[in-house]
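Thread title: Can someone regenerate the structure for this chain?

I was given the following input by a collaborator and told the matching structure tokens would be attached. They weren't. Posting the sequence so someone can regenerate them.
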Amino acid sequence: MSEGFNIRSIYVQLEEIFIKATAYVDTWRNYQALWDIEQKKEDVYEKLGSEIDKWNQLLNEINQSRRTFETAQDFILFGGLEISYNTV
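Best answer:
Regenerated them for you:
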């Protein structure tokens, strides 16, 4: 039996795809708070206060992380698994 048809190898490949897809979705969930910021802005203000360094760090982290979402596409493929975010 060739490696291409080895069921164990197929399961390993599927697991790798699901791990990558899960990490991507988790990233979206982590940043969902940014879209809900209007409701949570008091919490952010309370936590960061008037400390400019904390605000600067937050903005830098947001700026670095937004590359994950900056794309002309409205979906991402992980093998045969498609995650659509056109309604987000």
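Residues 3-84 form one domain.
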